[in-house]
UniProtKB/TrEMBL annotation:
CDD domains: ABC_MJ0796_LolCDE_FtsE. Keywords: ATP-binding, Nucleotide-binding, Transport. Residues 2-231 form the ABC transporter domain. GO terms for molecular function: ATP binding. It comes from Pseudoalteromonas fenneropenaei. Belongs to the ABC transporter superfamily. This is ABC transporter ATP-binding protein. The keyword Transport applies.
């Protein structure tokens, strides 16, 4: 599904050159749950931005579902991003003026779906996260954990190839965090790959694979046999 070959990233600011990511190879198959950990400044965000097509890599090749996205222009790049990648952020990023239904509808409107298709997708996603009954509510009427569920529903409604989650439980208390992790695991078991950046080593242990980033170097510890066995 995702294949990176000798991908690297160098930032040039003024005369200063920062090698944010050293060349690495990575394959992620459909349905895998991959955690990305590492200290602050190690390159996690850079990796996520490249995987999410928010930023260009400066070397190597990146294939998504077999397509080489390395040479695409910005327009094609955003099209693929909208169709194939669902984003989940620490801060939920819901629009406060829109109810849950319309929040989920927003990214669908940028695509070619007719209104019936959009409606089915919205209701299906809300049901998947257990919030169908609250479709007319506004984000501020929900708890943090529920808001993150809506953000997950919004990402799922687009039927992405994979979810990119950046510290998805960073703003939640531990009980809500546990609920969100259970939901993500559930989603992964239904076949959607998840790439999740987390500071929390314990949380990383819940993924099948753990990629550690240190000083721009990606390394993968052994496959997490325990999580894989549960899955
Ligand atoms: P993390 O997410 O693990 O905290 P980042 O990916 O944000 O790490 O940063 C990795 C390295 O790349 C750091 O040294 C950071 O200063 C540098 N970096 C990140 N973004 C930029 C940028 N836009 N311009 C220059 N350097 C950057
Ligand atoms: P289903 O069509 O599967 O039975 P529901 O009856 O639970 O789904 O909910 C569908 C309702 O949601 C429809 O009546 C539809 O008009 C309504 N709806 C449409 N747009 C919005 C919106 N922006 N906010 C809340 N509900 C909406």
């Amino acid at each position: 599904m995702l294949k990176m070959v000798q991908v690297a990233k160098t930032y040039y600011t003024d005369s200063i050159q920062t090698q944010a990511l050293c060349p690495f190879d990575l394959n992620i198959a459909q349905g895998e749950f991959v955690a990305v950990t590492g200290p602050s400044g190690s390159g996690k965000t850079t990796f996520l931005n490249i995987a999410g097509l928010l930023e260009n890599h400066s070397a190597g090749q990146y294939f998504l579902d077999g397509q080489d996205i390395t040479l695409l222009n910005d327009k094609d790049r955003s099209k693929i991003r909208n169709e194939k990648i669902g984003f989940i952020f620490q801060s939920f990023n819901l629009i406060p003026e829109l109810n849950l239904y319309d929040n989920i509808d927003m990214p669908l409107r940028y695509r070619q779906f007719n209104s019936k298709e959009r409606h089915n997708r919205i209701m299906g996603a809300l049901e998947q996260v257990g919030l169908a009954g609250r479709k007319g509510h506004y984000p501020q009427q929900l708890s943090g954990g529920q808001q993150q569920r809506v953000a997950i529903a919004r990402a799922l409604a687009g039927t992405p190839s994979f979810l990119l989650a950046d510290e998805p439980t960073g703003n939640l208390d531990s009980q809500m965090a546990t609920g969100i992790m259970a939901l993500l695991t559930d989603i992964q078991r239904q076949g959607t790959s998840i790439i999740m950046v987390t500071h929390d080593p314990q949380q990383a242990q819940q993924a099948e694979r753990i990629i550690e980033v240190r000083d721009g170097i990606l390394s993968e510890s052994q496959r997490n046999v325990k999580a894989a066995a549960i899955a």
